[in-house]
Amino acid sequence: MEINIGNMKKRSILKLIFFSALTIYLPLFLIVGGLGASGYDTVTLNGGNVYGVTAVIVSLILCVIFSFVGAAFLTLGAWILGKIRPNSVSIVAKQKLEDVREVFE
């Protein structure tokens, strides 16, 4: 079975990259928001530091924005690369267990 990136919709690629980036950024931004809620100068909005529950909310909004912008650029890059040189992913069935045992004997 072979999957071509050119056959995938740009929206599907964007969703995959967005949720991958979100899982990376979310713990970091939650820590930063928690520190801002505790009184540290970690969250800045319009040149001023934000504290309390507002810091957590602002950090979550910034997390979504950072993830979307990064995903948009990576999707654009994947789309351009797919136009220049089409890429594909091949899925190969695993060998039978008996074939593997013969190799190691």
One letter per element, helices H and strands E, the order comes to EHEEHEH
**Alpha-carbon distance between the termini?**
31 Å
Quaternary state of this entry equals single chain
Rg (C-alpha, Å): 22 Å
What share of the residues does DSSP label as strand, in percent? 5-15%
Q: What is the share of helical residues?
A: 55-70%
Q: Record the strand order, biggest sheet.
A: 1-4
Short characterization:
This protein has 105 residues and is mainly alpha-helical. It has 3 helices and 4 strands; from the N terminus they run βαββαβα. It has one domain.
Structure description:
- By secondary structure, the protein is mainly α.
- The chain has one domain.
- It is built from 3 helices and 4 strands.
- The chain has helices spanning 10-38, 53-84, 97-104, and strands spanning 2-4, 44-45, 48-49, 88-90.
- The chain has a two-stranded antiparallel sheet. Strands 2-3 form a two-stranded antiparallel ribbon.
- A hairpin with a 2-residue loop joins β2 (44-45) and β3 (48-49).
- α1 (10-38) packs antiparallel against α2 (53-84).
- The longest helix has 32 residues, at 53-84.
- It is elongated.
- The two termini are 31 Å apart.
- The model has no long low-confidence stretch (mean pLDDT 80).
Keywords:
mainly alpha, 3 helices, two-stranded antiparallel ribbon, 105 residues
Write the layout of secondary structure elements.
Elements: E1 2-4, H1 10-38, E2 44-45, E3 48-49, H2 53-84, E4 88-90, H3 97-104
Antiparallel strand pairs: 1-4, 2-3
